[in-house]
């Protein structure tokens, strides 16, 4: 799937809703040292990064293309054209890391 496929989603977000696409697939992952961690391994509460693909008209802090931090356990999933997305309210986002942040800023808002 091309990068611009989600640019033409047949969906319009309402109010304060944000539609994101997760950066990492669920399941197995690797630690920083290269150790394979199975999907069934118990871990503490982990937040996840995702890319914003659509926002409602009342969303003020993020825009499509931003990377955001969210809690993957508090989510509603939706599938559009065979691609899984996560739907949430703007207030459920924990942080935004964006290239559009000014030079003096850290680029990460918590």
TrEMBL record:
Signal peptide: none
InterPro entries: Chaperonin_GroES (IPR020818), Chaperonin_GroES_sf (IPR037124), GroES-like_sf (IPR011032)
Top-rank taxon, per record: Bacteria
Molecular function (Gene Ontology), one example: protein folding chaperone
Pfam family, one: Cpn10
Entry function: Together with the chaperonin GroEL, plays an essential role in assisting protein folding. The GroEL-GroES system forms a nano-cage that allows encapsulation of the non-native substrate proteins and provides a physical environment optimized to promote and accelerate protein folding. GroES binds to the apical surface of the GroEL ring, thereby capping the opening of the GroEL channel.
UniProt similarity note: Belongs to the GroES chaperonin family.
Protein name as it appears in the record: 10 kDa chaperonin
Gene assigned in the entry: groS1
